[in-house]
Amino acid sequence: MAAPAEWASLCEKFRSALNLFYVESKKDPETEPYRSKYSARELLEGVKQLLGSEEAGEGAPAAEGAEAGEGGGEEERLRAVRLAAVEYELGVNHTDTQECSAGEEHLAKCLQLLERHRLSRDCVSLYIQAQNNLGILWSERDDIKTAQTYLESAEALYNQYMKENGNPPLDSSEHFMTEEEKLSDQERSKRFEKVYTHTLYYLAQVYQHLEMIEKAAQYCHTTLKRQLEYSGYYPVEWALNAATLSQYYLTKQCFMESRHCLASASVIFSQAGQVPSSEDNETEQDQQDLRQRKAEIARCWIKYCLNLLQGARKLLEDNIGELDPDKQSELKAQQKKEEDEKEKGRKKAVLFGTSDLSDSILAMEEKVSCVFPFDFKEAREVFLVGQNYVNDAKEFFQVDGYVTDHIEIVQDHSSLFKVLAFFEEDYERRCKMHKRRIDMLEPLYAGLNPQYYLLLSRQLQFELADTYYEMMDLKVAIGNRLEELDSHTIKKINSLAQMAMKYYELFLDSLRNPDKVFPETLEEDVLRPALVAKFHIARLYGKLITSDSKKQLENMQASLDYYSFLVEYCEKHADAIQSVETELELSREMAGLLPARMERLRAKQSTFT
Asked: Region Disordered: what ranges (predicted)?
């Protein structure tokens, strides 16, 4: 055994190496990013040599024949564990300086030294940390399966230790501490739980890579919960992870869990000071990053509100997409019964937050519902929350510098208006909501260069066409309630129909090749939009109002041409039928009826001439 003075010197060298690696290296200049880490490595190699010569016997190799317990004796076991601690730090050092093969060798040696006693109090934490780091290393090599093996082994070891022993194990840093410096059991427990939280965090990422989405979400949720419980998190990173997890719950229509994640994200993010003042020590880039993260969380809130409204719409609409009053009454009656069950379910859900946070999170949750809105008043409350977050998101994601993000946020805003209009019974007010959509989308489209933003350009063309189409339908419905159509209503219907056709045609023109030829076979991603555009143009020609019989015939012929295109395309491409079954059925019907109608109109014309 080394003399007390020599042991103290050894401990000091080890601690100096850790200080250089974990603290001083952050201050290294950009020209020498690894200066402190290389110095730390030299000290660690020196500690390794001293352990070999002083404790194993002069001249003995430092890591040979030193597996914990091998060769007998407590001294030999202690030496092996200390060597393992040095090998671990060397492994982390090498991987952090981009020397992954050397890092792997040191981490593997650490595991080898500890293997026989990996379930003992002084080995288990260090063993799991080495497995965690090997998991990260193999993940970075894109060998996710090997990473999964290491991390799942670390998880199993933690569970086995907690079941068979459960006492707070020694932290890896304690192997070079005197008895007086050793940590309390409370601190040991906290550090061990943090090590295990890292295991779960990396496993969540591995499962995400392997597209085991449900398992990834489960591990992510558990990780976030543990980070709060053990205060082992960075507020901004935690908030972003929670907001991202909320989007997974949206795909499962788990609105209560999604809202809880978002409310927790907003509360935790506020711990970061949100946007710091210029008096803080943060750099301008740090402030910019914080503003961006705040806007990203706002975008997740927008998606939440939009999905909640759209989910309600699906439940309430009839076979032509209008609100079904019978379904509305039935669902409202059901909702009251289910609210009690929801509350019970809530208590079973994995909730975040310690007692000092739970009140703030609950207050945030109460600002927006997590149950489907079934009337205009309830829908408007959700809409207004979504709209507030739209404004927050647009503060950062401005069109100058963030074109794609800005347009996507405005599209979500438009979608919020669209789904709110579904709940509005008054057709005139509904028209005004769609007009708001036009007013926000048209300037964006006008300023967009389709050469660089073709996909976005097409999306805006189609959405503008659809919006004008909906407005035209509403004006027709309003006109049908009048005893006689006045010239103003006729003019409005025709104007809206022509604007809808204009944008549908622009969309269809964007599909043409450089020679302006329309494709014989449509790509899968534009198949349904293109055929629906053809169908809607056919219907729009049929809605144009004119007293000129010659113009009527021209419109009917144009309508027939578009219906016929859809029918003929589906005859040539049978795989397209399932994409447009309803439209195809109506197109076949109209393609059969229109020639006879046109013939009657021609006969009528000849009678009067």
From this structure: 54-74, 326-345
For residue 204, the one-letter residue type is A
- Please state, in angstroms and rounded to a whole number, the distance separating the CA atoms of residues 316 and 4: 79
Q: How many other C-beta atoms can be found within 10 angstroms of the C-beta atom of residue 33?
A: 11
Among the ranges given (3-12, 166-175, 331-340, 465-474), the one the predictor scored with the smallest mean pLDDT: 331-340
Would you say residue 65 has pLDDT above 70?
Answer: no
Task: Examine the pLDDT at 350 and tell me if it is beyond 70.
Answer: no
Predicted confidence (pLDDT) at residue 323 exceeds the cutoff of 90: no
| Contact indicator for 329, 276 with CB cutoff of 8 Å | no
Give the span between the Cα atoms of 132 and 238, in whole angstroms.
20
Cβ-count burial 288-306 (b if 16+ within 10 Å, e if not): eebbebbbbbbbbbbbbbb
Tokens at residue 255, please?
């609105």
Mean pLDDT, rounded, for 342-359: 63
79, pLDDT greater than 50? yes
Question: How far is Cα 537 from Cα 587, in angstroms, rounded to an integer?
Answer: 12
- 103-152 pLDDT, tens digit per residue, is 999 999 999 999 999 999 999 999 999 999 999 999 999 999 999 999 99
Q: What are the residue boundaries of the structural domains of the chain, listed by start?
A: 4-242, 521-609
Distance CA 175, CA 247 (A): 43
What is the Cβ-side half-sphere exposure of residue 582, based on CA atoms within 13 angstroms?
5
What share of residues in the chain are helix, strand, coil (percent, to 5)? 75, 0, 25
The kind and range of the H/E element at 528 are helix 524-543
Q: Compute CA distances 198 → 29, 129, 130, 135, 476, whole Å.
A: 29, 9, 12, 11, 61
**Which residues are bridge partners to 317 per DSSP?**
323
CA pair distance 155, 196, nearest whole angstrom: 7
Output the DSSP codes for 296-351: HHHHHHHHHHHHHHHHHHHHHB-TTSSB-HHHHHHHHHHHHHHHHHHHHHHHHS--
Other Cβ atoms less than 10 A from the Cβ of 553: the count is: 15
Q: Residue 547 class from Cβ within 10 Å (0-12 exposed, 13-18 middle, 19+ buried)? A: exposed
Asked whether the predicted pLDDT for residue 63 surpasses 50, the reply is no
CATH topology of domain 4-242: 1.25.40
Q: 200-225 b/e with 16+ CB inside 10 Å = b? A: bbbbbbbbbeeebeeebbbbbbbbbb
- pLDDT at residue 300, as a whole number: 98
CB atoms within 10 A of CB 37: 20
> Which CA distances in Å does 172 have to 8, 68, 88, 175, 433?
17, 15, 9, 6, 62
- CB contact set of 433 (below 8 Å; sequence gap of 6+): 417, 418, 420, 421, 424
Q: Rounded to whole angstroms, how far apart are CA atoms 32 and 202?
A: 30
How far from chain centre, in Å, is Cα 574? 36
Helix (H) or strand (E) holding 260: helix 255-270
Cβ pair 137, 163 in contact under 8 A: no
**What is the pTM for the complete model shown?**
0.85
Cβ atoms < 10 Å from Cβ of 386: 26
How high is the pLDDT of residue 279?
45
